[in-house]
């Protein structure tokens, strides 16, 4: 999600009784359906490092990190988790954790360093080895073709403001599917196009760092077009594979009954939660919001919407938090409403019931045949340690509680008939958290960035048990409203 907004001093960390309760009280057991997929997720730029290896070219994120001030701690992805060289040990670690699936992304810059044109086989070889390694460890590989690291050379030609980039993406997708398609069951085109377009072109918090609403609209359409064009190629190159897109959702609630809050909330819901899902689901762009914000749709050509709404097999759902909307929105996009509930180390409110509601709403609005939680998790302070079988381990009962409560909501949605087929925790590793650098630790596995040592946190041990048994203890009632903190505390 990556919203660099005010980080509150108060957070859900610590070792208080609230976080021990789920361990200590033998509550009801929640059993997920047979065959439910348990796994973890990462992305190329956030973990791989090796920015020049084997012919890789510069991506917009390599460039963005090189500009002082863009990344909170002044860091970059040059080493990150050094996964490019350590991938084999990382696969072994996942196998030891009993994960069923691993969602990762492929770096366009490794496969087509020129953005278009000649395929760099040495770059594709890396993913070939990774896929084979995962399969021989019994882990289902789930690649995402685009997780924000556009070749810089394409940005130099207009990036997502150019329709040509959508066509280039389709060529890139085809090259990857031709090489790996015999071993992949689910192809995901894009990760969170909302963040690519909004943070990359409207707020400037992400690469390429532009600040223009009209560019945001253009980028959003070209991203969706890229999904549709690549979807066609994937369908013809791998007809038996599932086709997926991963979208992020941050359900919005009005701060009050004031009609201004309600109206602004509807706009935010359209922009953040429906702008991509509606067109993919065949409902077109949210009309009223497009008109209210003055988008002339000049980028939308005949046939685009049909391509964009080609049937998909699976919608990936990324969920972290909800938002409370008060009109007018603050100009700097940073001031936030006070939180009703506790927050994570990113300042994001912890509100698991919003995930259950979201899943029910997505199912009734679009009726996609399968949904999967492709990202859910949290950054926490990770400041408590305990001795364990792994040696000194992060005692992250707060993260465990977060994950447990969100899975309980998935369970409840499934009980209501929503076809959720799996849950992938974000993230496998502490990693490069975009504009936050290495300050936000989301892993269930700790990474010591000085030594690259990986140590499963307590939440990882717990997650392994859930994956093995398909059962988790009912975490019990949600905390009372009022356990949060003022955003400006
Ligand atoms: C996203 C991305 C991840 C983030 C995660 C935490 O949702 O922003 O897919 O790359 O790291 O969401 O912010």
In short:
By secondary structure, this protein is of the alpha/beta class.
Task: Please explain how this structure is put together.
The protein is of the alpha/beta class. The protein has one domain: TIM Barrel (Alpha-Beta Barrel), CATH 3.20.20.80. The protein has helices spanning 17-24, 44-47, 60-65, 83-97, 108-111, 121-136, 152-155, 163-180, 193-202, 213-237, 259-274, 277-280, 287-292, 304-308, 353-366, 397-415, 458-469, and strands at residues 29-31, 37-41, 101-105, 140-146, 186-191, 242-249, 252-254, 314-319, 323-325, 371-375, 385-388, 391-394, 420-426, 445-448, 453-456, 471-473. The strands form 5 sheets. It has an 8-stranded parallel β-barrel, surrounded by 6 helices. A two-stranded antiparallel sheet has the order 1-16. The protein has a two-stranded parallel sheet with strand order 7-9. β14 and β15 (453-456) form a beta hairpin. α15 packs parallel to α16. The longest helix has 25 residues, at 213-237. The model is unreliable at 3-25 (pLDDT under 50). It binds D-gluconic acid. The site of D-gluconic acid has 13 residues, from loops.
């Amino acid at each position: 999600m990556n919203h660099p907004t005010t980080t509150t001093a108060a957070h859900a960390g610590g070792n208080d009784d609230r976080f021990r309760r789920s361990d200590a009280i033998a509550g009801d057991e929640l059993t997920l359906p047979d065959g439910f997929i348990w796994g973890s997720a990462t992305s190329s730029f956030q973990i791989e490092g090796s920015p020049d290896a084997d012919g890789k070219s510069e991506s917009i994120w390599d460039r963005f990190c090189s500009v002082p001030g863009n990344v909170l701690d002044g860091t970059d992805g040059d080493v990150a988790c050094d996964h490019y060289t350590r991938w084999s040990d990382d696969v072994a670690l996942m196998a030891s954790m009993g994960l069923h699936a691993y969602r990762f992304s492929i770096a366009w810059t490794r496969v087509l360093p020129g953005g278009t044109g000649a395929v760099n086989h040495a770059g594709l070889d890396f993913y070939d080895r990774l896929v084979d390694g995962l399969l021989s460890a019994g882990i289902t590989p789930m690649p995402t073709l685009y997780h924000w690291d556009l070749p810089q050379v394409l940005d130099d030609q207009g990036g997502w403001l150019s329709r040509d980039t959508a066509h280039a993406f389709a060529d890139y997708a085809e090259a990857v599917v031709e090489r790996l398609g015999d071993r992949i069951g689910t192809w995901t085109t894009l990760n969170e196009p909302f963040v690519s377009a909004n943070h990359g072109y409207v707020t400037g918090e992400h690469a390429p760092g532009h600040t223009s609403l009209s560019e945001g609209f253009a980028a959003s359409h070209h991203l969706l077009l890229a999904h549709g064009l690549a979807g066609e190629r994937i369908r013809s190159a791998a007809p038996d594979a599932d086709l997926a897109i991963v979208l992020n959702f941050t359900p919005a609630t009005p701060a009050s009954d004031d009609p201004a809050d309600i109206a602004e909330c509807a706009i935010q819901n359209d922009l953040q939660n429906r702008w991509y899902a509606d067109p993919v689901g065949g409902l077109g762009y949210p009309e009223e919001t497009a008109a209210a914000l003055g988008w002339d749709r000049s980028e939308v050509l005949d046939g685009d919407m049909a391509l964009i709404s080609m049937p998909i097999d699976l919608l990936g759902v990324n969920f972290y938090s909800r938002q409370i909307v008060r009109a007018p929105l603050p100009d700097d996009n940073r001031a936030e409403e006070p939180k009703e509930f506790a927050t994570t180390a990113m300042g994001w409110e912890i509100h698991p019931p919003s995930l259950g509601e979201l899943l029910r709403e997505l199912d009734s609005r679009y009726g996609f045949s399968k949904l999967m939680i492709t990202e859910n998790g949290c950054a926490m302070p990770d400041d408590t340690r305990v001795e364990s079988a792994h040696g000194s381990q992060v005692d992250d009962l707060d993260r465990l509680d977060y994950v447990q409560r969100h899975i309980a909501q998935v369970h409840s949605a499934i009980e209501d008939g929503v076809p959720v087929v799996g849950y992938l925790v974000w993230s496998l590793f502490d990693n490069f958290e975009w504009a936050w650098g290495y300050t936000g630790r989301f892993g269930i596995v700790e990474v010591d960035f000085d030594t690259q040592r990986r140590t499963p946190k307590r939440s990882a041990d717990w997650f392994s048990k859930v994956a093995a048994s398909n059962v988790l203890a009912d975490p019990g009632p949600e905390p009372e409203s009022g356990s949060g903190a003022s955003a400006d505390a």
